[in-house]
Amino acid sequence: MTNQMLSKVEGNVLTLERVFNAPRELVFQAFSDAEQLKQWWGPRGWSIPVCNVDFRPGGIWHYCMKCEDKAQGDFYGMESWGKGIYAAIATNEQIAYTDYFSDSEGNVSADMPSTDIILQFVEFEGKTKLINQATYASPEALQQVLDMGMEQGITETWDRLEEHLQNAQ
């Protein structure tokens, strides 16, 4: 059901690509609608109890991921807050935003690196190729999030997105 995510690191830029078996309008909607994001965002075993989306340039996406899986040991019950600020949106084509670690009030964490993200939604053989280009302040900042297991988290998140898209069609 799922296909391979391609991952490439060049200096301070991480590029991820994956093809989803769904029209790009559907994939784009999954990233722009709070109710849909709650269904699939985050790694397996994590829920999104808070997800507020103001989907417009300058708008904010503020969310909380919470570990609901007791099998994840020390992570069980843990909350991870995030805040995105949308820079540019081209419907069904691209979303650009800056992603931050934050607290429940939306205050940005000074200890964790921010990420400038460009999501591209490309029609590809009747499916959608999603290209995620993530730019960090430095190669060291990128390595910090890679060391936290970010690639596994994105892989699981995109697996959940693929399942969500299949159910939405």
TrEMBL record:
It holds the Pfam family AHSA1. It comes from the Bacteria. Coiled coil: none annotated. Residues 21-165 form the Activator of Hsp90 ATPase homologue 1/2-like C-terminal domain. Belongs to the AHA1 family. This is SRPBCC domain-containing protein. It comes from Paenibacillus aurantiacus.
